[in-house]
Design brief:
Number of strands: 5
Strand content: 35-45%
CATH class: Mainly Beta
Strand order of the largest sheet: 1-3-4-5-2
Number of domains: 1
Helix content: 25-40%
Largest sheet: 5 strands, mixed
Structural class: alpha+beta
Distance between the termini: 21 Å
Order of helices and strands: EEHEEHHHE
CATH topology: Archaeosine Trna-guanine Transglycosylase, Chain: A, domain 4
Oligomer: single chain
CATH architecture: Roll
Shape: globular
Number of helices: 4
Length: 117
């Protein structure tokens, strides 16, 4: 069985322990489920940097998902998590994909993971 790969754009932060990552669309809902193992990849180097176990998943509108799950996102757990996390994460995703694509209504998948040694 092929192990799914989840890529991260450097600088890669907050992917130790338990964390989540946001993905636009719902494709990952069909590829993985809680209990699955995934590879973590550095998108710039195109190299596997670790493994993780999927612990939980959720999907819905990007705006709603940011409100519910931003505090546990890997970009937040390593830094200034808390007040305003959903706004910072939404703005970050818009910088990556553009505001015309990353709208509050755009479907998004949140993948919770636990890093494996």
């Amino acid at each position: 069985m092929e192990v799914p790969v989840i890529g991260f754009i450097p600088p890669i932060v907050g992917i130790d322990g338990e964390f989540n990552t946001f993905r636009l669309g719902i494709a990952f809902c069909k590829k993985i489920k809680p209990g699955d193992e995934v590879f973590l990849m550095d998108e710039k180097k195109r190299a596997v940097i670790g493994r993780a176990e999927v612990t939980k998943m959720d999907s819905g509108g990007l705006g709603e998902m940011c409100l519910v799950h931003a505090n546990k996102n890997h970009t937040e757990v390593s830094g200034a998590a808390g007040e305003g996390a959903h706004e910072r994460l939404f703005a970050y995703i818009q910088r990556i994909y553009g505001p015309h694509i990353a709208t509050p209504q755009k479907k998004a998948t949140v993948i919770y993971m636990r890093r494996l040694e």
